[in-house]
Amino acid sequence: MKSKRYKKLPEKTNELPSAKIDSVLSLIKSNCTTKFDESVDLNFRINNKQKKNEVNLRTVVNLPGGTGKSIKVAVVCEESKIDDANNANADVVGGDDLVEKIKNGELNFEKLICTPSMMIKLSKLGKVLGPKGLMPNPKLGTVTNDISKAVKEAKAGQVEIRNDKDGNIGLSIGKKSFEDDKLIRNYLAVIDALEKEKSNLTIKGDLVKQVFITSSMGVSYKLKLEKSF
Questions:
Q1: Which CATH number fits domain 13-57+163-222: 3.20.20.60, 3.40.50.1970, 3.30.190.20, 3.40.50.11270?
Q2: Distance separating the N- and C-terminal Cα atoms of the chain
Q3: Is the pLDDT of residue 206 over 90?
Q4: What is the pLDDT of residues 67-103, one digit of tens each?
Q5: Calpha distance 175→153 (Å, rounded)
Q6: Which CATH number fits domain 73-156: 3.40.50.790, 2.60.40.3140, 1.10.10.10, 3.30.160.60?
Q7: Which of 10, 121, 133, 157 could form a disulfide with 63, with the two C-beta atoms 3.0–4.6 Å apart?
Q8: What is the CA radius of gyration of the chain?
Q9: What is the tens place of the pLDDT at every residue in 49-70?
Q10: Residue 72 carries which DSSP code?
Q11: Around 106, how many Cα atoms within 13 Å sit in the side-chain half-sphere?
């Protein structure tokens, strides 16, 4: 059942003509009528149904304006790199002891980074980490010897771009409280990341079919893509 608050929001906004993000943000913010600082979210519908194979897109993007969220980062590394992790403000740091805790189901973090040599031990914990989307991945920059850089990027505003089986990609580009310029820069960073990913994929036609923008508890609007990719 829709709440009284939701019933006061504009109706059928996703049926309106597509518009540029700079003209839509004021509408998105005016629909943020809850008491908390709502997220501004994107939903991409990609052309993932190909004749030969489905498109499985997975990458990360560093949002220049940040996300407005505090991410708890864990690092599994050798003793020689523990100081690097701590100096980069990792929240949980350890070696074999942390691997054992993870094995026992202690997942008190939102992103896991490890060094290549420790990945051998973590790879055996796929049943624990996989379902949570926490398994480190070299492509995502979470298996690396540069622990300091990986932790700082994760905390500064790095988000994952990943499509589901139906070809949807959902992610946040910030908060209602962000200035429009910051949200627009984050949006363009996502667009650039998707454009680069298309060059690595075998795909017929455009990668992105549609993109919608909304707030956590608001209604969606269709965005006009500035370029085809």
A1: 3.30.190.20
A2: 38
A3: no
A4: 999 999 999 999 999 999 999 999 999 999 999 999 9
A5: 19
A6: 3.40.50.790
A7: 157
A8: 19
A9: 776 677 888 999 999 999 999 9
A10: P
A11: 11
Tell me the C-alpha distance between 212 and 136, whole Å.
29
How buried is residue 200: exposed, middle or buried, by Cβ count under 10 Å (0-12/13-18/19+)? exposed
Specify the domain boundaries for CATH 3.30.190.20 within the chain.
Answer: 13-57+163-222
What pTM was estimated for this model as a whole? 0.90
Spatial contact of 63 and 39, defined as CB atoms under 8 Å apart:
no
Residue 206 amino acid letter:
D
Q: What is the distance between the alpha carbons of residues 206 and 198, in angstroms, rounded to a whole number?
A: 9
Domain(s) labelled CATH 3.40.50.790 in the chain stretch across 73-156
Contact 104, 96 (CB under 8 A): no
| Token pair in block for residue 159 | 């988000």
Residue 216 near residue 39, CB atoms below 8 Å: yes
Backbone phi, psi, residue 162, to 5°:
-150, 130
Please, which pLDDT band fits residue 229 given cuts at 50, 70 and 90?
low
Instruction: Name the 3-class secondary structure at 61.
Output: strand
Cα dist. 195→17, 21, 150, 199 in Å? 23, 17, 23, 7
- Single out the residue of 6, 8, 58, 12 nearest to residue 221, CA to CA: 12
Which of 94, 60, 96 has the alpha carbon at shortest distance from 74? 94
Residue 169: CA count within 13 A, CB half-sphere: 26
